[in-house]
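Slide 14.
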Amino acid sequence: MPTHFNQVYIDSSGYFLPGEAVANDDIDAYIAPINKVASRIKNRVLAENGIQTRHYAIDKNGKTIYSNVQLAENAVNNTLEKSNLQIDDIELLATGTSGGDNAMPGFSNMLQGEMAAPPMATYSSNGICMAGVSAMAHAASQIELGAYRTAMVVGTDLPSRLFKASRFSPQGYGADFGAHFLRWMLSDGAGALLLSNRANDSNPLRIKLQWIHQKSFSGDYPVCMQFGSAKTGNKTYLDYPSCGEAEIEGAMALRQDIRLLPHLFDVAIHEYVSLVKGNVMHSDNVDHFLCHYSSEKFIPVVEELMANANLSIPKRKWYSNLAWRGNTGAASIFIMLAEFLETHELKAGEKILCFIPESGRFSVGFMMFEVVDAANDTATIADRGAKSPDPIAQRTEDLVAPPHNPDDASGALATLLQELAQIWHDYRSRAWRSDLIRRIREQRLTVADYLHWMEHWIPQVREGSLWMREATANIRTPYGGLISIITQHADEEQFDYNILFDDYRLAGGTVANIDLLKRNPGGEALNSYLHAYATQINAVGMLGAIYVIEGTGQRIIPALLPDLKGQLDLPATSFRFLEYHGENDENHLNRWLEAVKLVMAIDVDAARDIVSTAKRTAELYLMQLESV
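Slide 15: predicted structure.
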């Protein structure tokens, strides 16, 4: 039976279709027929499927213009533009696709990475048309349970890369109708739905999810649509000596056995009848029927099966955008629903039934939505359950920051380390998503970028030992024991900036006088804050600043160093400063822990100053990174 929902709403919807619409007469420029057989298949398929235009993410030379992840990212951005939320407000990202750009990792993780989205829960569903419905069901269930308040659900597909002429021309696949058929059926696109436990405040009408029903009949029928298996036998592309040999034998062709398709709609309509007979729904109560069919040829088939069951939905209630958007697989129902909501004036009480059959190995999905009036909706914000827990607070077992585990301490010290760990994890996540570090991670950093970064960074590093010495000069009883610890630290780092300046010069930096280098606005703000703080009497909160700065050197820098060396054609001597800090900052932080224990033994309330200073230092250090 279906999964029912009481507090799941569509906050907004959106979609993305790459490039200009491609008419039937222009298809050959993208996925040309390979031989006379393929040309005849094309003419037959286009005459039956009713598709007039579609979109491709490849150009006429077969070059990929948009990756599948980029299609999804554009759909997400389009959806967010129509809402009051930002990507930082999304707590769960659920995706469905027939195939990502990579076999691994999961598609949702690749999308999160492409968007530099903040930490969140992810879910990747891989399949064919039903993959998006599975992602939708997971996301809606999590919201209904109260685990999350918001979820972005994305359906996306990019099959055109499998259809370009360059992949067919070496072997042509002969008269393999199954391999050629889908070339004229499928196209590219992405759609997204933003779900939440509240409705979009800007719209008095709410689109409320009532239920989702999905069922697989894979045990009843053979494979109908697949990619990766040989035309005959059980051999998959992974069983060949090489992918090249698998390609030659047709194991890497997307194909469909159209002889099985009539069975799919027979199965689907029987499932539809079972929902009606089970009083889940009734055809008379459906105001809008969004049917995902791959070809208009199947419209009369569906109508006849419904009529035979005396459960017809009048054709005037049907909606499909197949003719002008094409069949985009897992994205189809999302693009269809988003475009429907965008173009129709709805009334409270109307119900929208979405029907999604999948031919892969026969699965069926239904989704029912209801348009509700905000003023009369009984599921108000007040009774939708408490705000979902802070995801950071839920993961205390993972909050081990550099290099100290709160579980290794006790009492007030353990509490302090835990608070600092939370600050660190937020800071680390935001630092890794900064433009500078993203450029390094994505192999886009140039030597000019590296030099520009160091020009900002050198004068900031130069100030490190200075503000620490200012702070120790203002240490009074009872914190005298701190003076020797911090002084030793300042002594070790007093001339580190000279190493960094030498690295800069060896990398090709042209500024010969170190005094001419200026901090960027973020670095200037950080410097001003730390110097001002150091003038206070017993500024023990400086330990919070040291924690963030030294932690960056111990945890973040070592992870970036291999990428920097790999993408910059520079001598090894250009990275001495980064190597030094990666190797020594753990020792510095062990000394830091000694200082923290000394302070906490004197006054546990000093923890407030340490936490406060760590938080401000993290914000300003991030500002320094962003200002690069």
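Speaker note: Residues 283 and 380 are 28 Å apart (CA to CA).
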